[in-house]
Every structure is written in C-alpha cells, then in structure tokens.
Amino acid sequence: MEPKPVLLKQLQEQDPARHAAAEALMLLGDAALRAVVQSLSDPDWLVRGVAAEALGEMNSSQAVAPLITMLSDRKAEVRRAAAWALAQIGKQAMVAPKVVTGLFEVLQGPDAHAREAGITALGAIKHPDVPNALLWALGDPEAPVREAAADALGRLGKETMDVLIGALPHEDPGVRIAVALALAKIAKQYNKADAATPALIGSLTDYEPEVRRIAAEALGQIEDPDATEALVERLWDDIPEVRKMAAWALGQIEDPDALPSLLQALSDPVLDVQEAAVDALGKIEELDAVPALLQMLGHQAETIRRACNRALAKIGLKHPASSVDILSGLVHSLGDPDPVTRRMAASALGEIGAKAGDDLSADVAAQLLQALYDPDVEVRKNAATSLGLIGHSGAVEGLSALLRAPNGIPA
Fold it and tell me: Cβ–Cβ contacts within 10 Å for residue 107, how many?
C-alpha cells in the first residue's frame, strides 16, 4: 500500500487551531525543525503522527534518523506517517542514499512492524538499490512483511517485471498472491501482457486455491485473450471461488472462444459460479448465448434472474435488429415476482426497443403500458421512461393517465 498523509487532515477536522500551529511550524522550516522532532516523543499518538507528516512536508535530511526511529512506534498510524515522510524526503536525489541506507538497516532489524513500514517507504523511492532490497525482503519470516515487499515491487513499475516473475514460485502463498496482483498492475499499466500472462497462467495450477483464484483475477485485469484457454480449464476447478473468478476473468477478456464453456458453467452446482458465468456471457455479447439465458429466466434464484436480465440487455443493445427473442424474454420478466427484476426489464425494454425498429417497438410499447400499473413505483417509473424512449404515439393515453393519478397508479 502506498503511504499517504492523512493525520494532518484529521487534526484539521478535529482541532483547527492545533492544525494551524502545525502548518505554521512547517512554514518556519529549519527554525522549527528541532521543536517538530521533539514532538515525535509526545504521549499523544496523533501529535507524533502529525509531527512525522510535518517533517515529511519540511523535507529536511536532518529528519531522516528520527523518522526511521518512528517506524517502530506502537501505533500503526504513526508508523505509516513516518513511512510517508521518509518517502517524501527520499524523493530528493541528494538525500535518497541516506534514506535508503537507513531503511536497509530497518529491514535487518528485529521489529516486524518497522520492517513493514520501512518497505512501504522504500516502495515509493526511485533508487537503483531498492528492487534488490525488496526482493530480499520477500524472504522475511513475517507474512505481512513479505506481502508488503511484493506490493512495493509492483508499485516500482515495469523495471521490476522480471523480479516479480522470478518471485511467483515463492514458497509463501501470501507472497505469490501479492506478486500476482503486482504483475497484473504493471502489465495493465505498461502494456506488458506478453511477459505477465504466461507467468500468471502457470499460477492457475498452483496447489493453493487462493493463489489460483488471485491468478485468475490478475489475468482478468490484464484482459489478454491468450489466457482464455487456461481460464476455461479453471471453470472445472474443485474450488467454487476459483471457478467463479475464472468466469469473471473470461467476461473481462470478452473472448468469444470462451462461450461454449461458459454456457456449460451455467449448470454449475454453485449459484455464485452460475451468476458469474451469466455476467460473462453478457459481456461477451454474442447472440449464441441468448437461448440459454432465456431459459435461465425461469431460475428459482432471483440473483440469477437479475443477472440474466443484465446479460440479455447488453446483448440486445449490441444486436437490436436481432433482438426479438430477447425482447420477448424481457417482457416475460415484467411479470417476475422480484421487483428489482421487473425494474431492470422495464428499463432494458426501452433502451433496446428504441433501436429495434418500428414493428418491434410497437409490441414492446404495448407491454410497457401494462407495466404502468405495476405495484412497484420504480417499475412504473422505468416503464414510463422507456415509453418515452421508444416514442410510440399509442403510449400517450397511458402516460397521461399516470400523470393524472394522485397515487401514481393509473385508474
């Protein structure tokens, strides 16, 4: 996690006068440095944290040593403030070696909290020695420290891609998870899918289920079609959470080659996996998915029926001229016992009907007129909006009746 200054803002909200004093001390610069450093020993943790952030704003190299000491503070908020301040000071090219050297010493110390905070600071400093130090920290005996090192490596950017790929087989599952997410971040930001995707595909077969799940999530974030085949295989994973994430990732990638397998996943015994598969089919937006989705509109679970309406709406919007079956299914959903499903159907019918041609629009308008009498006010509202979108003149009488109805239901 990248360090951020939050305590000065917190003090401003709690006590504007004390915040003004802190601001004034920062403006005084070196003349106030000693007083601010002394405040690092205050019994009030907020004062200590504010002092640390103030030193970061003051950007003085003389504050490095006392701030490194604060990485061992008993309060996590103070440790984070000190890490942010050190990162700020370390951004100065002339001071960076001093900050980095001090943080290296912290990484070798006995305090795990200090090591974790030190890694947070290192991850925000551009220095040639930082990647190797963070790689070394992947072997720390404490899991939070190892995971912080992996996250920091990811924040350093594309220069650490090879380092992260080399760390994917790390013996600690927490590190493998953090590395996978860091790789996805870099690959997405710097267009490095060609390097990250093969490595993450290997993690899809990790013995640890959570690593497999995160690898699928990472591949979904990268959105590389080269991962489709490997993700399809995870649709049959023993762990439902992995299957669900694989379906989600396939939806992010939007590769039509995944369609047959996602259609099979609609029969998964776990509802969450079914829903993820429905959502993925909606994102792929292929007409071949429509018959199966229409059949799912009769599902006993309202979450699945809602997902099917979302998916059908997306496909219908992409293929309005071929949406007659979709419109029929959405009309059917106007009678669903779940009001949310009816609201979704009423809205989607207008969006698709407005693009579907006059003949289809007239049929849709007739059904939406009936929805103006729905007991749910949101359904009535969506139906009225959709009738306006379709622009069918036959809706005038029904809309006028709704306008005149004192209770919002036409007589």
Answer: 19
Contact 147, 119 (CB under 8 A): no
Q: Which of 269, 286, 188 minimizes the C-alpha distance to 235?
A: 269
Q: Say how far apart CA 217 and CA 215 lie, in whole Å.
A: 5
pLDDT per residue as tens digits for the range 147-200: 888 878 777 777 778 888 888 898 888 888 888 988 888 888 888 888 899 999
Nearest in space to 168 (alpha carbons), one of 135, 145, 140? 135
Alpha carbon dihedral 274, 276, 281, 282, in 10-degree steps, equals 120
Cα–Cα distance between 35 and 48 in angstroms, integer? Answer: 12
- On whether residue 385 sits in a domain, the answer given is yes
- pTM for this entry: 0.75
* Residue 247 included in any domain: no
Kindly report, residue by residue over 6-65, the tens digit of the pLDDT: 888 888 899 889 889 888 988 888 898 999 999 999 999 999 989 988 998 898 888 889
Instruction: Count Cβ atoms below 10 Å from residue 39 Cβ, excluding itself.
Output: 20
Q: Is residue 81 part of a domain?
A: yes
Other Cβ atoms closer than 10 A to 253: 22
Q: Using an 8 Å Cβ cutoff, are 311 and 289 in contact? A: yes
For residue 6, give its domain range: 1-127
Angle, CA of 32, 38 and 41, to the nearest 5°: 150
- From residue 172, how far is each of 113, 138, 149 by CA, in Å? 19, 9, 13
CATH number at residue 92: 1.25.10.10
Our count of domains for the chain comes to 2
Distance CA 163, CA 153 (A): 8
